[in-house]
Prior knowledge:
Layout: E1 5-10, H1 14-24, E2 30-35, H2 43-47, H3 54-57, H4 59-67, E3 72-75, H5 86-92, E4 95-98, E5 104-105, E6 118-120, H6 121-128, E7 144-148, H7 152-162, H8 175-182, E8 188-192, H9 204-209, E9 216-220, H10 229-237, H11 239-253, E10 261-266, E11 269-275, E12 282-290, E13 296-306, E14 309-312, E15 316-317, E16 335-336, E17 339-341, E18 347-353, H12 356-359, H13 368-381, H14 396-404, H15 412-428, H16 439-446
Parallel strand pairs: 1-2, 1-4, 2-3, 4-18, 6-14, 7-8, 7-14, 8-10, 9-10
Antiparallel strand pairs: 5-15, 11-12, 12-13, 16-17, 17-18
Amino acid sequence: MVRSLRVAVIGAGPAGIYAADSLAKSGTPCAIDLFDRLPAPFGLVRYGVAPDHPRIKQVVHALHRVLDQPGLRLFGNVNYGRDITLADLRAHYHAVIIATGCERDRELDIPGVELPGSYGAAEFVKWYDGHPDVGRTWPLHATDVGVIGAGNVALDVARILAKSADDMLSTEIPDNVHRGLAVNLATDVHVFARRGIAQAKFTPMELRELDDVPGVEIVVAPEDVEFDEASLAELRRSKQTQMVVKTLQGWALRDRRDEPRRLHLHFLRRPVAVLGSERVTGLRTERMELAGDGSVRATGEFTDYPLQAVYRAVGYLGSHVAELAFDHNAGVLPHDAGRVLALDGQHVPGVYAVGWIKRGPVGLIGHTKGCALETVGSLLADVDGLPQALDRPAPEAIEALLAARGVEYTTWDGWLKLDKVERRLGEERGRDRLKVVPREEMVELSRSE
């Protein structure tokens, strides 16, 4: 049996950190190293949660406490598959946990989706969250914008597009994002959902927050408030669905207000084509009707909406993980209770998966804890059969390997330095934090003496 377990975690977002925490609390002596391709930890919380949602970002405090405990090390700015390989990790660790998440936009197979002015929501989210690997500018010249999707990401994108730039000044957005939003011309933002209001995937709080945005009117057409037997059954079963429906019904029935910007929520509208020849000029949708069993069917009634930009928020996909089999349709690693599987269906010895790369982009951040417990449980059950080497290199060997390859990796102490700088920059502006965006600057601050 392994006397002291050494585990590498690829990805220092919530899933990787929760897996490390579960291991640290398991009672099994272990040393855990987390690797991330970004110079800073926290993944989705830092680069996927909208900046005007500080309540959700508070989970960083809990994640911080995990990474701050003895026995855990952070190696940021390390790109798995380029800077370090699976063979490297297997030579240094007894087990590897993949926690790379899902950050690509799921494709939408309709004509015109490739036109200029058609964007994936994931890239826009990265831009307004100050991700170091996206451009510093974003084209915000459209007055009429469409957002395709019925989940929280669609609401985030629509809210940011409808919001005044100055309303974001209390958040951690970098200066380049504020400058971009300040010239945003959007007056009407349309969100299109294929199914009915009882099937919407918005969380109640996220939905209600739309009505608190200054200068923005929420518009729901009364004819979109429809129910079938399956919808009524879902209402009886789910308190969350009841709250979402009640909010949407209230907006559909109230008198219109004279606000300078409008956010339209359309239901039972299936996008069938992005219109335009040289760039986006509109979106064609087909009216759907409830089929009685929770599904919808086409009516053959089409409507063209004049738009100058369209954002696709129809889901995320994971990216292929080097040297491992991958389910390209689902965008996840094939697994059995977290044990990563090879093409022949057999468990790849010592390799595990956790989070969205394991189960797909479903559930809130808190749901990742249960996922991590399952994966760690599988790993600990396999301890006696984990691949063994006669002599594992000393823990310092991985640092020497990265240094020899010229990798300017960042550490937990480095993050504390960067965190201090961001907080100081924010304090100067009356905010909690002001993000540093350029990767080179993040690395330089993290590695400073």
